[in-house]
Amino acid sequence: MKQTTNAILMIRPVAFRMNEQTAVNNYYQKVLDGLLPSTVNAKAQQEFDAFVEKLRAVGVDVTVIDDTLETDTPDSIFPNNWVSFHENGDVALYPMFAENRRQERREDILDTLEDKGFEISNIMDYTSAEEDGFFLEGTGSLLLDRANAKAYCALSPRADEELFIEFCEDFDYAPVIFEAFQTVDGERKLIYHTNVMMCLGETFAVICADCIDDKKERKMVLENLKADKKEVILITEAQVNNFAGNMLEVRGMDDKKYIVMSASAHQSLTPKQIAQLENHAEILSSSLDTIEACGGGSARCMMAEVFLPRS
């Protein structure tokens, strides 16, 4: 199984704003005072378009789909939370914590991918768990080490343990389960998505081990990464606040590897960390300040990787 892909799905926002329904447990979101909603959305669109342009310029195959005004979906820019695409032709649909995010799941998006030549053979639908109040938000909650058949998950209100184990059984992944925390107003609170504090590349892992308060759990996670011969690059909680954990390794032209992140993530890294990352792939960064502030997500959240076979 490949760990990285050249094909990415991205959703262009039409009414992007801070989603009040997700702000209850995403402590990275902020209200940008004095900006009209239309201004916030226009800035997000500019950041989105510039980001897509940078990805396409290095040969990443980006499928861009416009969000629709028919639904109130301020977070549609983060499609990796509701869908994942797998090498065997499976598509997984995930249960979402915020009610207004559930409308992001659109069948026509899957039709568009099929029109582009991607083959979908089966849909694994976990969304009925929403009715019982259980959630698992795609590759925000799950970090897939596809090559080593392991899945990492930091449990939170948006990542239910039983659902995660069910996913691992369905997709043949060994579960690696832990809790990750951030400090909010002097209190330790669960981090809402695993991919905020950790990134898995083909030959490296970026992780804020300080977020894993339980020493046994921390040791277990690091041992799993080292057992799979990944270079572990440690980041601090301050760097997590700049979305340095929210990176994704992708492939461009001629299978060249890139580590994609936001400008704020890139700027927060030390020269040593940058050198460590550049041993594995070239860094590609883009300014996502408005998206990060209002959405509480960054570069990795905006890219749903498409591993589906092509006809």
UniProtKB/TrEMBL annotation:
UniProt xrefs under InterPro entries: Amdntrnsf_FN0238
Biological source species: Flavobacterium pectinovorum
Molecular-function GO terms, alphabetical: transferase activity
Domain of life: Bacteria
PANTHER family to which the protein is assigned, alphabetical: AMIDINOTRANSFERASE
Keywords: Transferase
Coiled coil: none
Pfam family, one: DDAH_eukar
Protein name: Amidinotransferase
Entry-linked Gene3D superfamilies: L-arginine/glycine Amidinotransferase, Chain A
Record keyword Transferase present: yes
